[in-house]
Amino acid sequence: MKKLAWLLLVCLASAPLLLPGAVAPQVDLVSRYIWRGFDLLPDNHMAIQPQFTVDLGKSGFSLNVWSSFALAKWDTFKGANEIDLTLAYTFKTSEKWEVTAGFTHYGYWFAEDFTFKDGTSQEIFATVTRTDLPLAPTLSVYYDFNLGSGLYATLGGSHELKVSEKVSMELGGLIGFNSRQYIAKSGFSDIDLFVKAPLTLGRVTLTPSLNVMIPLMDEVNEDTEVWVGFSAAI
Fold first, then answer.
1. Cβ-based burial of 55 (10 A; exposed 0-12, middle 13-18, buried ≥19)
2. Which range of residues forms the domain containing residue 141?
3. Model confidence over 70-81: pLDDT tens digits?
4. How many angstroms separate the CA atoms of 134 and 158, rounded?
5. Consecutive H or E run containing 168
6. pLDDT tens digits for 51-65?
7. pTM of the model
8. What spatial distance separates the first Cα and last Cα of the chain, rounded to whole Å?
9. Is residue 135 a part of any domain in this protein?
10. For the domain that residue 98 is a member of, what is the CATH number?
11. Is 20 among the domain residues?
């Protein structure tokens, strides 16, 4: 299974070169894998997370392939390794609004005794952004109807801070609301804050980031999580 994972990793990395119209291939390296407040690789384990997006012409649709692989303790964390597919549609709206909706198929293909029922999950989502307001507030709603079987929503925003003519920083955050998605209760679940400093070198954008997750529900996480990330995108 390790060899299969590395083969898939190579395929993900090379697919943008083989698919005309593929855009924004990207590879992230994170010191922790925190998702919606949950620590998916406990005890501070790193992950590599390659992805790419295929823009399907002028249809408004795009296809994203996203993956995550633990960089240590494969036998312990192989059930958390995943390859996900997202089909999204961006609506034509005024310049003040950005509206996207779509479907994500989560795949935990490396789990022991994998089955589609217990090793995959499906989710629908919608995201609305008001671009002309301070912080460009964004509301996102996700509903999982298999493994998670519940709703998760976020309200957040970000701001670009010019450090110099060529250097800028992005500061942002969100608050999450979990309604019985992988837990047995509902409530505000997590606050996520980040600072990013993108640096463009030719066609490549390198982005280090510092991230903080403050839990609001013990069912999601009992600890404040701090991690760093490094992204390379074309």
1. middle
2. 2-14+25-233
3. 998 888 999 999
4. 9
5. strand 168-179
6. 999 998 889 999 999
7. 0.90
8. 29
9. yes
10. 2.40.160.40
11. no
